[in-house]
Amino acid sequence: MNWLDQIKWDAQGLVPVIAQEASTGDVLMFAWMNREALQKTAELQRAVYFSRSRKKLWFKGEESGHVQTVHDIRLDCDNDVVLLKVTQLGHEPGIACHTGRHSCFFQKYQNGEWTAIEPVLKDPESIYK
Fold first, then answer.
1. CA 75, CA 15: separation in Å to the nearest integer?
2. Which residues of 20-55 are buried (b: 16+ CB within 10 A; e: fewer)?
3. Which of 7, 33, 61, 67 is deepest in the core (most CB within 10 A)?
């Protein structure tokens, strides 16, 4: 059986993907992949996602330069979530979020509200032209 056939794709042919920084364990982002994106990720050892809004492959860093080099591709026990262990390139520390932050998970629930707890490392206006 083909390794891609072992994944439980949703009705749209997608699987959720978590990108985790290999060196720190930080969860950087959540995205989606279709079969082609996961195949290309495995071949290139570079994160390739599927953009649901643009309905096309999204090579992480194609506009921003914030590429993710993939070290491990893992599948959860139910075969319906993929985990990528990555090195985030393009800025030190690496920027994974379109807001210019290291991680997309920068908001923390505190005292009844969401508070941004990670700084903007680079102005998004200067990242995306």
1. 10
2. bbbeeebebbebbbbbebbebbeeeebbbbbeeeee
3. 33
Nearest to 17 by CA among 54, 60, 55, 61: 60
Delimit the domains of the chain by residue range: 3-119
pTM for this prediction: 0.90
Residue carrying structure tokens 């903007």: 120
Report the chain (129 residues): mean pLDDT per 10 consecutive residues: 95 98 95 98 98 95 91 98 94 84 94 95 82
**Residue-level pLDDT at 129:** 62
The strand pair at 15-21 and 82-88 is best described as: parallel
Give the helix ranges, DSSP H, for the chain: 35-44, 124-127
Edge-to-edge strands of the sheet including 68-75? 27-33, 15-21, 82-88, 68-75
**Cα 105 → chain centroid:** 11
